[in-house]
Write a sequence for this structure.
């Protein structure tokens, strides 16, 4: 179990094993603490759809990566059991940042919100999630 006693380098090494998010999408961990995480990626060609916009799945991946960190820091192993994402706008900048926070973190169920914006402050999307943790 990772918690605030772990360095950011240790958190990055552990979640770097999520090869799809970290290697294929370029997601990186910026902050990690109990019930909170900030992750980002620089928008590249691999994130674009046929209309030359950032693909919804790339935005979802970043949100899901931040969620995984926020809901697992200082907790028993936790997985998402339900996610809803709303897309607001295409990013104007070149970098996406996802900020995940616990709304309520219970013994076996947690509720989280992940806001995704670009570095210019453009609100791009919001994910809400319900997570289950093993006792």
């Amino acid at each position: 179990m990772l918690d605030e006693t772990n360095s950011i380098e240790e958190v990055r090494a552990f979640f770097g094993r999520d090869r799809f998010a970290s290697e294929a999408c370029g997601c990186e961990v910026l902050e990690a603490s109990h019930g909170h995480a900030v992750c980002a990626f620089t928008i590249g060609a691999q994130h674009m759809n046929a209309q030359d916009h950032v693909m919804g799945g790339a935005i979802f991946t970043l949100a899901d990566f931040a969620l995984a960190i926020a809901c697992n820091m200082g907790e028993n192993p936790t997985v998402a059991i339900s996610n809803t994402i709303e897309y607001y706008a295409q990013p104007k900048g070149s970098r996406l940042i996802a900020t995940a926070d616990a709304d309520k973190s219970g013994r076996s169920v947690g509720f989280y919100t992940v806001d995704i914006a670009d570095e210019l402050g453009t609100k791009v999307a919001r994910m809400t999630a319900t997570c289950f943790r093993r006792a």
Notes: The mean pLDDT is 97.
